[in-house]
Design brief:
The complex is a heterodimer. The two termini of chain A are about 20 Å apart. Chain A has a domain of about 220 residues. Chain A is globular, with a radius of gyration of 22 Å. Chain A is an all-alpha fold. Helix content of chain A is about 75%, strand content about 0%. In chain A, strand 1 and strand 2 form a beta hairpin. By secondary structure, chain B is mostly helical. Chain B has 4 helices and no strands. In chain B, helix 3 runs antiparallel to helix 4. The N and C termini of chain B lie far apart (about 60 Å). Classes of the chains: A mainly alpha, B mainly alpha.
């Protein structure tokens, strides 16, 4: 209770204002949908875009001035604000992408927008959580919103099926996470990251080794599900395929970023526990994730499934960075900075690629087979060029943000001495070039198929253009962003 | 005394009561030979099929009831610790906290009311 007396509520409100504002906006949208019989997607979209730009600017200002502060339940440092920035950019682009989808029949734009906002509030809670329970709450808010969004394609059986699969498997994973937290509490008597970290730094071996190992194993299973790491990735292709494409983009970029934030914070807090073989476990997890993700992606003919497996592979690359950051704590600001940079790079190129898939959609019917991309270069040169750039960026071709991201990530791994893992990751990148080129070859070297391309809306074009510009610009001049990423992880608190 | 002893006693008590009652009804029930058997239900003749169908309309109110019921349960622990907080001078804090929580619930209630989720037809 002394803690409550000492809490500076004004400061807390000032630091957590982005979360409070987003939650307030979400609730006002729900009230609008309840009491205004007419849905006005354009007005809602305009207001939301302005509000999110404002919140983005405010978060950026907070990133610049914040003094690391932990308040038992919530913590505020540059790392959490930089992840906030990534998910806010994701939210901005996804709202632009879903402008056509929310005006479809039977869907209320205000409800869809509100769910997106609530999911982002959950993600921010994960970034700012200083206690395992708060992180769990954030994960649940985010996941429940995305289950509903997955099933929001009215009257389409695949969408319902995907939502049901995601809900059941996701709840199961949450149980693992919660059991892991309970066991950690049972061994250490606390769920706060700060006390877990001090226990881990003290290399205290008095705790019950079996229970502690079980706890960490359950935590890794739960978090591994949320980031779609092999062998917990099997939900990803089905859910990504069945969900409305803007929602898929949101899950691939935002949900994965937030889940990685939780994983990083927990792994770095518990990383020195002498009882746990962290490095071998993470090494194997990352090697399996990128290899299996890439090998299965080779056989896909459905663009959303292909991108789903590619996102599994990218989770593997990110895990390389996590392993390196854990190994090399003295140099970790470059390594961990590489992970943050890659999260941003990955989010942007994934959003762009799914954006092009949204743009190809034809009168509600989604155009998703690879063969539908035949001859796109003649019918819509801009979309074809944009998708080419995003795919090249995912493959890690120079002059794109994907190359810079992989460079920083693998440089960190080499610095930490993981030569084998780095060689495996580079080999995997070479394999991935094969399937990333399949749509490109279809678009440029095959005759067009005879269906009419739907008219493109301005918000959609703006979103694709924004991603394209950022991917290219930051691909050519990545150093400022990388400096910012390094700055973000310099003073990590728990 | 071991602090977990009471849990063991509770466990044994539950096992004895459950097992004893099942044993007693096994001992006392009427034994019939042949095929015209009915399920034994405390000695009362069962009426009708247990698998009757009912309208799907019950689903929404039941679901919403569960949601709000579970959330309102938080009021009990709050009421229990309220006096302690007032005594230590944090009455305003705990009061405002509950008002915010209930405010969020009211938004949810207004939403389901406005979207006519509570209309029967």
């Amino acid at each position: 209770m002394e803690k409550l007396f000492n809490t500076d509520w004004n400061l807390l409100l000032q630091l957590a204002l982005p979360m409070v504002l987003l939650a307030g906006l979400g609730m006002s949208l729900l009230l609008c949908s309840a009491f205004f019989p007419r849905d006005r997607p354009k007005i809602f979209l305009g207001v939301l875009l302005l509000a999110i730009l404002g919140i983005l600017f405010y978060t950026w200002m907070q990133w610049r001035v914040v003094v690391p502060l932990s308040q038992e339940m919530l913590l505020f440092d540059r790392f959490s604000y930089s992840l906030d920035l990534i998910v806010l950019v994701t939210l901005l682009i996804v709202l632009l992408l879903c402008s056509k989808y929310v005006s479809a029949e039977g869907t209320r734009s205000s409800e869809v927008y509100a769910l997106f906002l609530f999911a982002v509030v959950g993600m921010m809670l994960i970034h700012h959580g200083a206690d395992l329970i708060v992180i769990f709450l954030g994960i649940e808010i985010m996941s429940l919103s995305s289950y509903i969004l997955t099933g929001s394609r009215r009257g389409i059986i695949r969408s319902y099926e995907a939502a049901m699969k995601y809900f059941i498997l996701g709840s199961f994973a949450s149980c693992f996470l919660l059991y892991g937290i309970a066991l950690a509490y049972g061994v250490t008597g606390s769920t706060s990251l700060a006390s877990l970290q001090s226990l881990s730094l003290a290399a205290d071996t008095s705790g019950n080794t079996v229970l502690l190992t079980m706890s960490v194993a359950f935590l890794l299973v739960g978090l591994g599900f949320k980031i779609a790491a092999v062998p917990f990735h099997l939900w990803a292709p089905d859910v990504y395929e069945g969900a409305p494409t803007p929602v898929t983009a949101f899950m691939a970029a935002g949900v994965k970023t937030a889940a990685f934030a939780a994983l990083l914070r927990i792994v770095l807090a518990l990383g020195h526990l002498p009882q746990i073989p962290w490095i071998p476990v993470l090494w194997i997890l990352s090697a399996l994730t990128m290899t299996i993700g890439n090998l299965v992606a080779l056989r896909q003919t459905h663009i959303k499934r292909l991108l789903a497996y590619s996102s599994v592979a990218h989770a593997g690359y990110l895990l390389v960075g996590v392993t390196a950051a854990l190994q090399n704590n003295t140099l970790s600001d470059a390594t961990l900075g590489g992970v943050v940079f890659y999260l941003f790079a990955y989010s942007l190129m994934t959003l762009g690629a799914f954006g092009v898939v949204v743009a190809m959609g034809h009168r509600g019917e989604q155009v998703e087979e690879l063969s539908d991309f035949s001859g796109l270069s003649q019918r819509h040169p801009f979309l074809a060029a944009a998708l080419t750039v995003f795919l090249l960026s995912m493959a890690g071709i120079p002059a794109t943000i994907g190359f810079a991201g992989k460079f920083y990530l693998f440089a960190g791994a080499v610095e930490a001495g993981f030569y084998g893992l780095t060689i495996l990751a580079v080999l995997n990148s070479v394999i991935s070039v094969y399937y990333y080129f399949a749509p490109i070859i279809k678009m440029y070297f095959q005759p067009p198929r005879g269906y009419e391309l739907p008219p493109l809306s301005y918000p959609l074009l703006a979103a694709v253009f924004l991603c394209l510009f950022t991917v290219l610009y930051l691909g050519i001049f990545p150093s400022d962003l990388f400096l910012m990423a390094r700055e973000s992880v310099k003073e990590l608190i728990f | 005394m071991d602090p977990y002893l009471s849990i063991l006693i509770l466990f044994l008590f539950a096992a004895i009561v459950t097992g004893g009652l099942m044993f007693l009804s096994q001992l006392l029930n009427p034994k019939k030979k042949g095929t015209d058997k009915t399920p034994y239900e405390s000695g009362i003749q069962p009426v009708g099929n247990p698998r009757t169908r009912f309208a799907v309309k019950f689903y929404l109110p039941a679901m919403l009831f569960i949601l709000f019921d579970v959330e309102v349960v938080f009021l009990y622990p709050w009421a229990v610790i309220f006096r302690d907080f007032v005594r230590s001078g944090l009455g305003a804090f705990i009061f405002v906290e509950m008002v915010i929580f209930l405010g969020v619930l009211v938004v949810g209630l207004l939403y389901i009311y406005g979207r006519r989720a509570l209309d029967w037809d």
